[in-house]
């Protein structure tokens, strides 16, 4: 993951040297460029995407000299197929006990959130592309805050990117918890500190919204869009340039999804929808997901209910096969309902046939996780199911969080065909004959 990001930075440096005085704002590499040649500025209307420059609909690959010095040496053959593995996680919902423990872990200087995520091991970083719903705004312009108006210290972004996440949805009901000022602060934070990472679902302006985030991974171009059902009754002030796109704006959403399908190979849509703390998938969730697939979405990532829900393939109108995770649950929280302790990491493989450009989805599966915290709230972490025990459940802070309940939730909401193979024996009765 980090090698991929560093390589993108080196390529960007080379392209900037070629373009001379081009000036632009979105998505430079993490390496700060402090000085540019004093040449006449040229207009730049595209964006840099992992080693290539996109100018409107045309992508121009950077030119490199033949390292061998042999001009007759044939170019490297393009493989017939390329693939990328995707992992997606649910709501990163940071309550007071979580950032209080993070402050203690950092020795009182700043925050260190990583201990709460350490049991995930390499489940995130092993993926070629990892996506997180960052449920709370990230800003140091406000004091850390909890329900109902969340705000999370900036060290969270550092720890999540180091964990391996490559893209972040901020389209959720808490994105306006600190009003317009909070939205602007969090979007500027991401842009200034992690400019090569797609952050999507809320925007600084109409133009920013229309600049669909894309990322090239293993020769596959992904586009990212995010929508939310509501923002807890909060809204942007009249005249604000900022944009949050709501599910009710179907005409706009259809246009965006179709446009994303035109400029990418695979369209990923994050949607914050459904009934909170309910395992039942609503007709609204199903209908909206089908519309997204028909408009051009390939993968739909559902969040909001704070507990797990089912998943399925969808047959799109044009014959494609899309996939939807209706709800992944939380990644971390200290909510007080035992249903919220069951969580999912969604995984799926995207394969592109280079001669035809056709995308296929395969190996869709769900990794079951349990959110564990003790009665004193002095230890908070999530565990893959194979690391979780009945004894841990018996010591859970939330009454009713039993090991048996976790198994039942996973069995009832993850179809056996989509249960990650390495966890299947823990959830489904095994045939002993």
- CATH architectural label of the largest domain: 4-Layer Sandwich
Q: How much of the sequence is in beta strands?
A: 15-25%
Shape estimate: globular
Radius of gyration: 22 Å
End-to-end Cα distance: 44 Å
Q: SSE string, helix = H, strand = E? A: HEEEEHEHEHEEHEEEHEHEEEEEEEHHH
- Alpha plus pi helix count: 10
CATH topology description of the largest domain: Purple Acid Phosphatase, chain A, domain 2
The main β sheet shows up as: 8 strands, mixed
Low-confidence stretches: 1-68
Name of the CATH first level of the largest domain: Alpha Beta
Keywords for this entry:
alpha/beta, globular, disordered N terminus, 2 domains, Purple Acid Phosphatase, chain A, domain 2, 433 residues, eight-stranded mixed beta sheet, six-stranded mixed beta sheet
What does this structure look like?
The chain is an alpha/beta fold and 433 residues long. The protein contains ten helices and 19 strands. Strand 6 (167-169), helix 4 and strand 7 (199-200) form a beta-alpha-beta unit.
């Amino acid at each position: 993951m980090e090698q991929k990001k560093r390589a993108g930075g080196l390529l960007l440096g080379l392209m900037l040297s070629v373009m001379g005085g081009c000036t632009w704002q979105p998505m430079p590499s993490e390496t700060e460029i402090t000085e540019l040649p004093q040449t006449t500025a040229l207009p730049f209307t595209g964006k840099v995407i992992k080693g290539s420059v996109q100018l409107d609909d045309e992508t121009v690959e950077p030119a490199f000299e033949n390292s061998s010095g042999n001009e007759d040496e044939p170019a490297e053959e393009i493989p017939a197929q390329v693939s990328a593995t995707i992992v997606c996680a649910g709501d990163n919902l940071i309550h007071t006990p979580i950032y209080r423990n993070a402050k203690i872990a950092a020795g009182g200087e700043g925050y260190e959130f990583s201990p709460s995520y350490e049991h995930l091991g390499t489940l995130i970083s092993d993926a070629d592309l990892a996506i997180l719903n960052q449920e709370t705004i990230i800003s140091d312009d406000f004091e850390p805050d909890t329900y109902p108006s969340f705000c999370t210290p900036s060290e969270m972004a550092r720890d999540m990117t180091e964990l391996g996440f490559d893209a972040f949805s901020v389209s959720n009901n808490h994105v306006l918890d600190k009003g317009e000022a909070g939205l602007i602060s969090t979007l500027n934070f991401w842009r200034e500190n992690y400019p090569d990472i797609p952050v999507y679902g809320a925007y600084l302006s109409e133009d920013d919204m229309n600049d669909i985030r894309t990322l090239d991974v293993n020769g596959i171009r992904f586009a990212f869009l995010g929508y939310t059902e509501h923002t807890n009754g909060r809204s942007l002030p009249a005249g604000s340039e900022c944009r949050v796109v709501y599910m009710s704006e179907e005409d706009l959403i259809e246009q965006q999804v179709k446009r994303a399908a035109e400029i990418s190979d695979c369209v990923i849509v994050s949607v914050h929808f459904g009934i909170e703390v309910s395992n039942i998938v609503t007709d609204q969730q199903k209908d909206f997901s089908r519309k997204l697939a028909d408009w051009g979405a390939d993968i739909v990532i559902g969040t909001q209910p704070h507990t797990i829900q089912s998943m399925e393939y969808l047959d799109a109108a044009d014959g494609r096969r899309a996939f939807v995770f209706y709800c992944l649950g939380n990644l971390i929280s200290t909510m007080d309902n035992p249903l919220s302790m069951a969580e999912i990491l969604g995984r799926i493989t995207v394969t592109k046939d280079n001669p035809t450009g056709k995308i296929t989805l395969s190996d869709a599966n769900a990794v079951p996780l349990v959110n564990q915290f003790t009665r004193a709230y002095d230890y908070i972490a999530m565990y893959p199911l194979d690391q979780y025990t009945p004894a841990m459940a018996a010591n859970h802070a939330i009454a009713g969080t039993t090991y048996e309940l976790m198994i039942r939730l996973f069995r009832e909401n993850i179809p056996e065909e989509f249960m990650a193979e390495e966890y299947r024996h823990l959830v489904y009765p095994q045939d002993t004959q």
